[in-house]
Amino acid sequence: xxxxxxxxxxxxxxxxxxxxxxxxxxxxxxxxxxxxxxxxxxxxxxxxxxxxxxxxxxxxxxxxxxxxxxxxxxxxxxxxxxxxxxxxxxxxxxxxxxxxxxxxxxxxxxxxxxxxxxxxxxxxxxxxxxxxxxxxxxxxxxxxxxxxxxxxxxxxxxxxxxxxxxxxxxxxxxxxxxxxxxxxxxxxxxxxxxxxxxxxxxxxxxxxxxxxxxxxxxxxxxxxxxxxxxxxxxxxxxxxxxxxxxxxxxxxxxxx
Length: 256
What we know:
Blueprint: H1 11-20, E1 22-25, H2 31-55, E2 59-60, E3 63-64, E4 68-72, H3 82-85, H4 88-97, E5 102-112, E6 120-123, E7 139-144, E8 155-158, H5 160-163, E9 172-173, E10 180-181, E11 190-191, E12 199-203, E13 207-210, E14 219-227, E15 243-247, E16 250-251
Antiparallel strand pairs: 1-12, 2-3, 4-5, 5-14, 5-15, 6-13, 7-12, 7-14, 8-11, 8-13, 9-10, 15-16
């Protein structure tokens, strides 16, 4: 598959997204883009570690040195990532989920270190925006840079039909991890068991969590999110980044 190739998203997958809040695309990231995502992930980790060194810290927000990393907007430092995040593959996912108009809303690396990567509790991505900022669900593209298993702390998705809600709920901050938690039931969710180069596509209203990494290898994910609207904070400023991505179904060439 070349870096310009796209994927066909079936009507059944679109229905599953509407009714259950997610679908899975296996082996769809072109090898060239997978290599870029991995290389820029390592560069981003090194940058965060250097920042912690300067400040004499081992914890920075929800980043924990050599344990768990949530590196937001890495393309600000590593613009080569736009080759993937502004690709036709991501445009096709947006068309199938949020429609023909889309903004690049958020991105981050989610990394768990070998044999000690922390878990991440049940949450909706929209829980980090909050219930006080009305917004339509945006789409999350959870891109696996490594083979994913229960042993290495893959994501678990809770379908709408079992979550008890299809809207964003109030979350509580968990002491110690700084995670926001929004589901407290006993359902373990469905594990995302996919090879590297796959994408779990889910709504920002869909509950998900992840486990510990118990393997001797790092577990890496690149997360790209797209919104069909500009979400505004109470002060009128956009929440997140809002790079124009797609208009009337066509990708807009990124400037700068």
